[in-house]
């Protein structure tokens, strides 16, 4: 792990904010040249990465390996599956039910994304009602294709995306049961919008509001080092002078940029700061505030997202 100090020009700070997805420029929803998009390789995720959608859904990675990923959701449910989100989760458990799925789908199905790519796979789902123990088995066929590219606007900003459409059918009668349409951004390597259509239910749409990294998922030693660098930046650095730090694994790095000092209503010394995380190539930023406690340590103010 290492750290360094950098004085950031205002233009660079503005550029990082723009790249983080918060630009307010209004762009029409239309097709774009796929050659303008970054290569859309299969995304990977590390523990602590989170995504929040305007539907109220929030999801955070609690564990990952080369092949699988574990998620925890804002409603308390958990799931485990491939890094490839196009394949439904292989196991899940919520308040009222739990279940498992078995599929022949490959872990890299459709990746890297290219317009015109298509694939299909079968999946067998076994779900259990936790209240009465009733078990039900369901078999479905999925057909997925990369139908094109599109520039879209969501609460987190404007993104150039690949549009991936996955239709679900019954195995026996081939009746259409539903469709998931993902809008995948190569910039943040995750989907920024998901449209859900059903045969017998109302449609739903989930649009990304924010995404980032929860540093509490770093190991204990790295957490201590990161906090030390943050305290040093808040205590000593001038406005706009950053402290840079990277984890012992090299998978996580952060740039901490302190801004103005001020006093809160109870007389504590406080500062605004920005943290810019790079987690395995996925960049996110957070605007935060911290105040110095009576023991001399700096504490983030309440009601702030991780």
Please give a handful of descriptors for the protein shown.
about 50% strand, single chain, 2 domains, YmcC-like fold, mainly beta, about 300 residues, elongated, twelve-stranded antiparallel barrel, six-stranded antiparallel sheet, 2 helices
Give a structural overview.
It contains 2 helices and 18 strands. It has 306 residues and is mainly beta. The strands form 2 sheets. It has a 12-stranded antiparallel barrel with strand order 2-3-4-5-6-7-8-9-10-11-12-13. It has a 6-stranded antiparallel sheet with strand order 1-14-15-16-17-18. A hairpin with a 5-residue loop joins strand 14 and strand 15.
Q: In the CATH scheme, what's the topology name of the largest domain? A: YmcC-like fold
Task: Say which CATH homologous superfamily of the largest domain is assigned.
Answer: YmcC-like
The helix content is under 10%
What ranges have pLDDT less than 50 throughout 5 or more consecutive residues? 5-29
Largest sheet: 12 strands, antiparallel, barrel
CATH C-level class of the largest domain is: Mainly Beta
């Amino acid at each position: 792990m290492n750290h360094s100090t950098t004085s950031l020009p205002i233009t660079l700070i503005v550029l990082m904010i723009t790249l983080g997805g918060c630009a307010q420029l209004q762009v029409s929803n239309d097709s774009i040249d796929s050659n303008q998009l970054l290569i859309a390789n299969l995304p990977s995720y590390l523990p602590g990465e989170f995504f929040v959608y305007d539907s109220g859904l929030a999801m955070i990675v609690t564990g990952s390996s080369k092949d699988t990923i574990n998620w925890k959701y804002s409603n308390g449910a958990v799931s485990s599956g491939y890094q490839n989100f196009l394949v439904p989760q292989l196991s899940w458990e919520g308040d009222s039910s739990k279940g498992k799925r078995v599929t022949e789908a490959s872990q890299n199905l459709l990746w890297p994304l290219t317009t015109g790519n298509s694939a299909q796979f079968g999946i067998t789902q076994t779900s259990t009602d936790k209240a009465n123990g009733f078990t039900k088995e369901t078999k479905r066929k999925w057909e997925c294709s990369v139908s094109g590219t599109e520039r879209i606007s969501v609460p987190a900003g404007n993104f150039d995306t690949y549009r991936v459409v996955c239709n679900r059918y019954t195995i026996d009668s081939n009746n259409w049961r539903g469709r998931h349409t993902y809008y995948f951004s190569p910039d943040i390597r995750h989907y920024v919008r998901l449209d859900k259509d059903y045969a017998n239910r109302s449609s739903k749409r989930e649009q990304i509001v924010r995404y980032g990294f929860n540093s509490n998922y770093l190991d204990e030693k790295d957490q201590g080092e990161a906090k030390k660098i943050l305290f040093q930046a808040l205590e000593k650095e001038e406005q706009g002078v950053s402290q840079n730090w990277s984890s012992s694994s090299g998978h996580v790095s952060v740039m901490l940029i302190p801004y103005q000092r001020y006093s809160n209503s109870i007389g504590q010394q406080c500062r605004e700061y920005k943290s810019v995380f790079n987690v395995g190539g996925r960049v996110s930023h957070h605007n935060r505030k911290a105040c110095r406690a009576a023991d001399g340590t700096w504490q983030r103010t309440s009601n702030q997202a991780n």
